[in-house]
Task: structure prediction
Amino acid sequence: MTTNETTAGGATLDARKLARRRRRASAARFWRQYRSHRAGVAGLIALTLLALVALTAPLTIGADVSDVTTAPGSPMEEPSGRFWLGTDTFGRDLFGLVVWGSRVSLLVGLLAAALSVVIGAVVGITAGHFGGVWSTVIMRITDWFLVMPALVLAIALATVLSRSLGTMVLAIAVVTWPTTARLVRAQTLAVEARPYIERAKALGGGHLHIMTRHVLPNVMPLVLAQTTLLISSSILTEATLAFLGLGDPTVVSWGSLLQDAREAGAVSSGKWWYVIPPGIGIAAVALAFTLCGRAVESVLNPRLGVSR
Result:
């Protein structure tokens, strides 16, 4: 190995160490600023506890909690020491069903938000980068999705397609990506107006290189903040679709529990334990993700002035 090769290898290693050091410093700075937002920290703690409950459900509750043939109680029993939240119309333990349903609600919300942000980011970056006819056409399509009632469109998609978790994720993502696309396109236009983009083009950087190496890292903070904010709305939409009977009938979620309670007449008969727990779960998760999203958005864009 020549001296020049050794020097080049050492320079590459030093550059990687410097990049890792900068990433660690950036992450530490982000955490210091994030934890100064009391509401964001509270939301993060709540989400951590909910995630632990959902992940450990197979160990603490068991997968047979939704089996109607092995229901341990009588139909519609009131809360007691044996059944903390009472039982449903089949005699199943509602506490176990609420805990098990958190897995499906969180999974659908996370996957739908992730897919929505990926679609919106790709559309927004390409529209802002290429411009011209492509940008005009894709933005008109985006506007069409924006003016369409999101819930109505999601119901239509969930009705036409097969009733499964994949359909729920796809339906939610299709109706929520336009907002992300609009935001990312605006940020892309701002990034591409900077001088170093012109230098990259002059040095022979292609479209893919500029979009992935220069534009994407600059819009990632916006994408991250948008993801955390979309998760709460995705969970609410999933609960609404399941409540309307458009979810997968073979799985238990908070929305499907509310649908079962409605069909059983729990509200009119005063069976509050059938309605309130899944409703509180939906509201708590949506609020926790919203608090985290607002805090992340405030850290990444301090000009928003979000209260702490």
